[in-house]
Design brief:
The chain is an alpha/beta fold and about 375 residues long. The chain folds into 2 domains: about 15-180, 3-Layer(aba) Sandwich (Rossmann fold), CATH 3.40.50; about 185-385, Dehydroquinate synthase-like - alpha domain (Dehydroquinate synthase-like, alpha domain). It contains 15 helices and 8 strands. It has a 6-stranded parallel β-sheet with strand order 1-8-5-4-2-3, sandwiched between helices. Strands 6-7 form a two-stranded antiparallel sheet. The radius of gyration is 20 Å and the shape is globular. The protein binds 5,6-dihydroxy-NADP and zinc ion (ZN).
Length: about 375
């Protein structure tokens, strides 16, 4: 197998480092009417919002507050209406993945003539014009700051669905690691796990002799393993936090996924757990990934051995033992941040198995994984093994 043909395109300008929020002044047109989008208020409490407002100087600026974790269509539509009626011409998301994803949906919906939920049902492909938008990141995890994806939920219909469109790359993202110092431990843990699993979903598939992508992916995983605990225990240590922030961005900006097979089964099953039970995105990944690796260990055999040796430093001639140990190490890594990796630990019982399988069918997630052989039956076994 050789590396697949690919195109790599990523137009997002990254502005990285301390004291970089002031650069908003040249990143956003002087005459722009700016709508700042934020979540539940963390950026008010930690001073990021006021710094952003100052940097925008005399521009007309308003704030849209209340984008929830796992952003809801219903909430986002209020911002869409506001932009339509009041003619904002720039949207600035200040927050984590939910604010960034929500802002992408908002920016892509304003000019759409039909019901924007249709854009979600069509996976984002019908978005053909966006209101210009950029981000100030406050939570390293999703990579949304440098990719063209978003995940949007609708409570009434129990849907949490991904969209993707080249127009959804932000024009810029400011990554000031000090703006993430105020994160609660739970969110740091979620972020480390999310970035880790993004990397695994693009790396732990089958070999295609993509040497650069493999080494980059292993570099991200090793960085998360080596710096993860430091930044978890000492959130204000700039060095380790800065490395974590950049690792999370690089984990899902297209670079390590270029020309290689991609899995994403853990994510798609995880999304169903979030919409059904309200689990955090990172928690769902910590629960599902070990079961996916176990269930698919034959399909992923060569890469699991490579992962065990190069990432976890395992050795010996017994390949089955290396695979076993690699899966155990992965689970232990998640648990070392206090994240539980079984459904029963979140008081979720075996009725989840059928429910998740039904949701996956309803959402046409019936051929998941790098070989498209994770059918609803296989997903059923994966959730069952996660109880
Ligand atoms: O809402 P506020 O008050 O801002 O609080 C948030 C929220 O409660 C808080 N927070 C964020 N920055 C903070 C902070 N608290 C203190 N200090 C700060 N500096 O953290 C909580 C969680 O925020 P959220 O944005 O929901 O977390 P995350 O960044 O993990 O985003 C999760 C969402 O991203 C989607 C997930 O499905 C989920 O909806 N994903 C998006 C992806 C993408 N666009 O490529 C890929 C991912 O796989 C993921 O699916
Ligand atoms: Zn994720």
């Amino acid at each position: 197998m050789s590396i697949q043909n690919f195109e790599f395109y990523n137009p997002t300008r990254i502005v990285f480092g301390q004291n970089t929020i002031k650069k908003l002044d040249y990143l956003i047109p002087k005459n722009a009417k700016v709508l700042i989008t934020i979540g539940g208020g963390s950026v008010r409490k930690n001073g990021t919002l006021i710094e952003v407002q100052k940097a925008l100087g005399t521009r007309h600026v308003e704030v849209f507050e209340g984008i929830e974790a796992n952003p809801l269509y219903e909430t986002l539509m209020k911002a869409v209406e506001k932009i339509r009626h009041e003619n904002f011409d720039f949207v600035l998301g200040v927050g984590g993945g939910s604010v960034m994803d929500g802002t992408k949906f908002i920016a892509g919906s304003v000019h759409y003539a039909g019901d924007p939920w249709q854009l979600v049902l069509d996976c984002g492909k019908d978005i053909n014009k966006v209101v210009p938008f950029g981000f100030v990141l406050t939570l390293p995890a999703t990579g949304s700051e440098m990719n063209a994806n978003a995940v949007i939920s609708r409570k009434t219909t129990e849907d949490k669905l991904p969209i993707k469109n080249e127009l959804l790359y932000p024009i810029f993202s400011i990554l000031d690691p000090t703006k993430t110092f105020s994160l609660p431990k739970r969110q740091i843990a979620n972020g480390i796990i999310d970035a880790f699993v993004h990397t695994v979903e693009q790396y732990l598939t089958y070999p295609v002799n993509a040497l650069v992508q493999d080494r980059f992916a292993e570099g991200i995983l090793l960085t998360l393993i080596e710096e993860g605990h430091k930044t978890f225990i000492q959130p204000e240590d700039y060095e380790s936090r800065a490395n974590f922030v950049w690792a999370a961005t690089m984990a899902l900006n297209g670079l390590i996924g270029a020309g290689v097979p991609e899995d994403w089964a853990t994510h798609m099953i995880g999304h169903e757990l979030t919409i059904l039970y309200g689990l955090d995105h990172g928690q769902t990944l910590a629960i599902i990934l070990p079961s996916v690796l176990q269930e698919m260990r034959q399909d992923k055999r060569e890469k699991l051995i490579q992962y065990g040796k190069r990432v976890w430093g395992l050795s010996g001639h017994n390949d089955e033992k290396i695979i076993d140990d690699a899966i155990v190490k992965t689970r232990e890594f998640f648990e070392s941040f206090g994240v539980k990796t079984y459904l029963h630990e979140y008081n979720i019982d075996k009725s989840a198995v059928d429910k998740v399988a039904e949701q996956l069918k309803r959402h046409h997630m019936t051929a998941l994984g790098e070989r498209k052989n994770i059918t609803p039956d296989v997903s059923y076994r994966i959730v069952q093994a996660s109880l």
